[in-house]
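Bench notes, bay 3.
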Amino acid sequence: MSRTSGPRRARTAAVVLTAVLGVSGCGALPELPGPAPTDLVPSEVPRAVPTATGNLSPDGFDAAQRMAVRIRNVGCRSLSTGSGFAIDATTLITNRHVVADSADLQLSTYDGRDIGATAASTAALADLAIVRTVDELPAFPELAEADPASGDTVTIVGYPLGGRLTVTSGRVMGVTTDPLNENLGEVLVTDAPVEPGSSGSAVLDADGRVIGVVYAKNAAGMSFIVPVSTLRQMLADEGAFVPSPTCTD
């Protein structure tokens, strides 16, 4: 898929990429094929210094935490957690692997309020999913018009390890071909820390706009992001998302 902006391609060295799944564990993938050039990725990337609100203003942080949702996937044989964020009053975005094989999806907001889920739909192309809710969500952010460029500061807001709401910050290191979905095209690579349970977290720019969705990390600590340009394209395609099968189907 085409991208709105064009940062230089960057490939990671031969590392094992893992989906940032829930607390029940992470799935490992084989190494990327072929020689992986490292000269396009800085060996040392400047790190933003995290604060109580990441790189967001106090108002931006307040809006970010209000739209972040913790997801608990109760499956027939497993239990995992993930993160998501609202895009309108009754719609969440998260990862496909966060809602996979569920018998029950349990949602909660930053203030501890439980939200009922009515249905989940997943995309075949990218690790994205839509969850519809019974009750209205506290707030939802604006989607950025363009993907960030290399060096841009980003903030990730989610629920790692199924715990409290956490904010981490970093910078965009570049782009790489998506190692999980080869037909997707390019995804963003950042140095913002994520943990199991961070899957589906919103990635925000300095103005609090969504510029991507966390879906994986690698052994070197780099996080992988579905860019907002891909999210926008898929939301505009009525056939991109189909009902998600459950473990009871």
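Next record in the batch:
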Amino acid sequence: MKLKLYHKIIPILTIPVFGIFVVFYGYQFLSTMSDSNGLWGNMYSYYDLSKTQFAIYKLIVTLILIGLIFSQSIFLVIKNIKKLNKTFVIMAVLIGFWIIAEIYMQTKFIGKG
């Protein structure tokens, strides 16, 4: 089977966006775990979470996004339509859970200062 236009467009749009989130979330994980000074290292306190809880959340999101980037890239190159469609469904579910988690985290936000 031949790839349809949306099979090519969706990964081309989502892979760079996911890459940006991987960089930011990965850096937040690294800053939190290394006790960096400043906002990135202390962000967990703004959400009223422990350092470990916040770091695990950032790490899980980062790893899932890396997995989606690699799987979409591989399935796009080998032109596997069925598996590419599965990654689109997984991506939609992840984005839904991610939005819900971020909304929940914003309800716990405690302004400092």
